[in-house]
Design goal:
With 182 residues, the protein is α+β, with helices and mostly antiparallel strands. The chain is 18% helix and 41% strand. It contains 3 helices and 13 strands, in the order H-E-H-E-E-E-E-E-E-E-E-E-E-E-E-H. The N terminus is likely disordered.
């Protein structure tokens, strides 16, 4: 581990109570390559259930509008994430995205065991905002701290970006990246 990276880890660990998750930042090309599924849709339900080992799991039901990368294209799919509130007790994973019924999103998803999970702990969710025909993409990185290691320069913290790019341009670029990898 480089001296700069070690210093960053020590500083982060010694800070007053910090609720953050540190994740390696993936750029758009890496996210597109790593995702098994890229889909835009509307959140139809958010519900918490208990896993087989007793932990709360939140299930986000998404009504698909458009697939940018997929083998199968179901009309509805469920994204699962660790955490939620059950029996008055809450488990929250720092940096994890939050979802609201009615929200429109574009998700980069990975297959895990028997379902779908958001890629990169809070990095795989883009909100679709604005009226039809004027939609833009907004990316909120939750409470996670994303680090990018650019070679010998040491680790760099990636700022929590909000992108106001028009949705059609973003989707066109992602679709082109998917096509180029075939």
């Amino acid at each position: 581990m480089s001296r700069a990276a070690l210093t960053a880890v020590v500083l982060l660990a010694s800070a007053a109570p910090v609720r953050a998750t540190i994740v390696r930042a993936l750029d758009e090309a890496e996210m597109t390559a790593a995702a098994a599924l890229i889909v835009r849709g509307a959140v139809r339900a958010v519900a918490t259930r208990r896993s087989a080992d007793g932990l709360p799991l939140t299930e986000i039901t998404l009504e698909a509008e458009r697939y940018l990368k997929a083998d199968a294209r179901p009309a509805e799919l469920v994204v699962t994430q660790l955490g939620g509130t059950l029996d008055g007790r809450t488990l929250h994973v720092a940096g994890q995205s939050r979802y609201q019924v009615g929200e429109r999103v574009l998700l980069f998803l990975a297959r895990q065991r028997d379902g779908w999970v958001e890629l990169g702990v809070g990095a795989g969710k883009y909100r679709v905002v604005g009226p039809p025909g004027q939609e833009t993409i907004a990316r909120e990185l939750g409470g996670a701290v994303f680090l990018r290691q650019p070679g010998a320069g040491g680790a760099q913290v990636v700022p929590p970006a909000v992108v106001g790019e028009p949705l059609p341009l973003f989707e066109q670029r992602i679709a082109a990246r998917v096509e180029a990898r075939r």
